[in-house]
Amino acid sequence: MKQIIILGAGQVGHSLAEALSADGIDITVVDTRAERLAELEDQFDIKTVHGFGAHPSVLDAAGARDASMLVAVTDSDEVNMLACQVGSTLFNIETKIARVRARDYHETPELFAQDAMPVDMLISPEAIVTSHIQRLIEHPGSLQVLEFAEGRVSLVGVRAYYGGPLVGHELKNLRYDMPGVHTRVAAIFRQDRSIQPDGNTVVEADDEVFFVAAKKNIRAVTSELRKLEKPYKRIMIAGGGNIGRRLAEALSKRYRVKVIERDAERADQLARELPGNVLVLQGDSADDRFLEAINVEHSDVFCAVTNDDQANIFAGMLAKRSGVRKVMSLINRPSYVDLLQSGTIDVALSPQQATVSALLARVREGGTATVHTLRRGAAEAIETVVSGDSRTSQVVDRRIDEINLPEGASVGAVVRDDEVIIPHHDTVIHSGDHVILFLTDRGKVKQVQRLFQPSPLFF
Q1: How do residues 316-334 score in pLDDT, each as one tens digit?
Q2: Got the DSSP string for 225-274?
Q3: How big, in percent rounded to 5, are the helix, strand and coil portions of the chain?
Q4: What predicted TM-score, i.e. pTM, was given to this entire model?
Q5: Are 204 and 94 in a shared domain?
Q6: In what residue span(s) does the RCK N-terminal domain sit (predicted)?
Q7: Mean pLDDT across the stretch 169-195?
Q8: 396, 424: one domain
């Protein structure tokens, strides 16, 4: 059985331990906070070690001599990198992953050569969240936009509204409304309950609908579920920290961007370093009088990305009340995310869930190429690369209706070379295909992995 050491029992470490323990992987979590470790032991079937993760003796006690992977996600970049160095030098751990936030490190890739700092994978929560926000802005009306097969196919979540042509009608009408546009509705969530869709399923207003389509068809499918929104032009970002700065730089080429930063010294620095077409405003984004003074109501999108959950929530609510079309707030506490999304705030962004998704793709076996957690972690979308042949695999050269998929799992798309195939029951899976699967129950992940992993014992 694969053995993994996780350094850090914060939100990311906790979420990763939860996902991997459900997969049946042997996990040990290391942290200096005994109370956090006790919470993990009470909730999951895992081992814990109390101590400083970069110390050789602590790693040894955590089982580093037998571990195949080290995932360092403490709050310190330097501790994470040093732990990878110790794990490689003293224990020859095969795969080392480090969460590294500081941009300077990411912009110096030669630091992470194997003969320098032996880190096999760098995870940047800020970069992941920035990319996620960009996709949401590029596709107005979406709740989630997730990419697979290097961007050739997307899984999009939208909320169905009255007025959408498909609302109140059966899903099979999609093929008549959009001839030539290939798409599949992978799942519908209605009042937090999962519905397995088929052609006779009727879409209701306020349903959260996840569909799979080639990137070029996203806008057309979205228009069937809700009134199509005009492209966004004016973006306001509350918070000039790492995420706010990254976001302003990334969006400045296509949008009119304003950044609000409370700290005067940081605001001056941003004004000097950001592109000249980005306007930096010094003030409190959670102050309704300040927001009124800067005409927040003229913004199309308001992104609250400070390091304070409560400030992000309050600023987002004020912006929405002022008439901003779309409001996104960065929320670190998972319990807050569940409470807020679908309320006043349109999208609650969880850096922990985004980071865990990126980690799961590397940690899991069986050809897993991409993993995205959905519905605040309740569901998953997985891209797996099919390998083996008809003698060693339960899926190769078989029709989809011949594959014993567990309940709640469905095939949303197949990418074969450069072709995106929206499959039917008689679509045959070939070796080398990228198969995008949707699971409404994360507890079925292990079963799906076994199904797609070739075995010499299968005939």
Answers
A1: 999 999 999 999 999 887 6
A2: HSPPPPPP-EEEEE--SHHHHHHHHHHTTTSEEEEEESSHHHHHHHHHHS
A3: 35, 25, 35
A4: 0.84
A5: no
A6: 1-123, 232-349
A7: 83
A8: yes
